[in-house]
Amino acid sequence: MQQAQPAEQPEPAEHVWFSKAFLDVGTERRRQIEAEGFDYQHDDAHDKGEMAFAGIAYLMAAVNPNAAYAWWPWSLEWFKPGSIRRMLVKAAALIIAEIERRDRAEIRP
């Protein structure tokens, strides 16, 4: 009696560094700057972690909507939840904005 051979496993797909998700986050960050007017000068004025908190609020809205509002640092009229994916994209873009702000603050004399 012949023993069954294990099924061949497909090779893992090569990681795509510029996935749709990655590009969408960059597009959202650009939209925040160009369409909303939240440029570097605007962001630099929020030096108490507000953009990070806003990112957390959108992340929470995606996974636990009841907890999201407690994290929102600004007037609720600016909080615009949407689909889960859209909120995750906004969260990532806001976290990037916070990282960029901190990077700029480090290089200022």
Task: Give your account of this protein's structure.
With 109 residues, the protein is an all-alpha fold. 57% of the residues lie in helices and 0% in strands. The N and C termini lie far apart (78 Å). The model has no long low-confidence stretch (mean pLDDT 90).
Specify Rg, calculated over alpha carbons. 20 Å
The major β-sheet equals: none
* Unreliable parts: none
Structural class, by secondary structure, is mainly alpha
Shape: elongated
- Secondary-structure element series: HHHHH
Mean pLDDT: 90
Share of β-strand residues: under 5%
Distance, first to last CA: 78 Å
Structure summary, number of beta strands: 0
Report the total helices: 5
Helix content: 55-70%
Based on the model shown, name its key terms.
5 helices; elongated; mainly alpha
Concise synopsis of the structure shown:
The protein is mostly helical and 109 residues long. It is built from five helices and no strands. Helix 1 (20-34) crosses helix 5 (84-107).
Secondary structure layout plus pairing:
Blueprint: H1 20-34, H2 40-44, H3 50-63, H4 65-68, H5 84-107
